[in-house]
Amino acid sequence: MKKLYRVKFSLIHEGCWTSKIDDRVITLRLSQYNRRKVHVLVASPKLIVKDLKTSGNVDDILKFRKMKGGYVIEFLEDLDTTISGAILESGSNILEYRNVVKAGVEKWEMITTSKTVVNQFSERFKVSNLTVEEMKFPELLGSGLTDKEMLMLKTAVSMGYFNYPRSVKAKDIAESLGVSKQDFLYHLRNSINKIISSYDLG
């Protein structure tokens, strides 16, 4: 019977776009673009297109959208030399991932069913602060957010929607995601409701 593991590590990936980043940048989504490229969607408080273009592993900037409080940027990076590529190559062994880049350091957290994946990451990349802890299945179920709800929530947090005062309006976030304001708010409220409901507050 397979077990679940929560894995956390950090790294400085020389030559990667992340090594040039000072501010906090969050990876919102990774997907395979073709056999050799990863499609990456990030949220950044500053326009980092120049840093991306001069990085060895970024192949193309697909588009970027200016938002109140920051930017949402889409680009392609190499599948073979990046953590993003390694995550996608791991297939269903990696169930969930999160990445925050700040001051040139990538901080990753992932949930996996395979310790072999952890060993492969350790051998392939110079990871530090590696922790691996077994987790129980109910922890995985967590809040039960859909992909769309998670995307709306992550984007709202990264763009400063919950800051006081707000850094960005709901319509600006919705525009960056290509959805209506009502659709954004509907999924955002659902995500918050599910998270709060997942805790026993009684």
Secondary structure elements and their pairing?
Layout: E1 4-11, E2 25-32, E3 37-44, H1 49-53, E4 58-67, E5 70-78, H2 83-89, E6 94-102, E7 105-112, H3 115-124, E8 128-135, H4 137-141, H5 147-158, H6 170-177, H7 181-197
Antiparallel strand pairs: 1-7, 1-8, 2-3, 2-6, 3-5, 4-5, 6-7
Helix pairs in contact: 5-7, 6-7
What does this structure look like?
Helix 5 packs across helix 7 and helix 6 packs across helix 7. The protein has an 8-stranded antiparallel β-sheet with strand order 4-5-3-2-6-7-1-8, with helices on both faces. A hairpin with a 2-residue loop joins strand 6 and strand 7. The chain is of the alpha+beta class and 202 residues long. Helices cover 32% and strands 34% of the residues. The protein starts with a strand and ends in a 5-residue tail after the last helix.
SSE sequence, one letter per element:
EEEHEEHEEHEHHHH
> What is the overall pLDDT average?
89
Number of strands: 8
Distance between the termini: 34 Å
Shape: globular
Radius of gyration: 17 Å
Treating each run of at least 4 consecutive H or I residues as one helix, how many helices?
Answer: 7
How much helicity do the residues have?
25-40%
Strand content: 25-35%
So what's the oligomer here?
single chain
> In which order are the strands of the major sheet placed?
4-5-3-2-6-7-1-8
Give the structural class. alpha+beta
What's the quick description here?
The chain has 202 residues and is of the alpha+beta class. Helix content is 32%, strand content 34%.
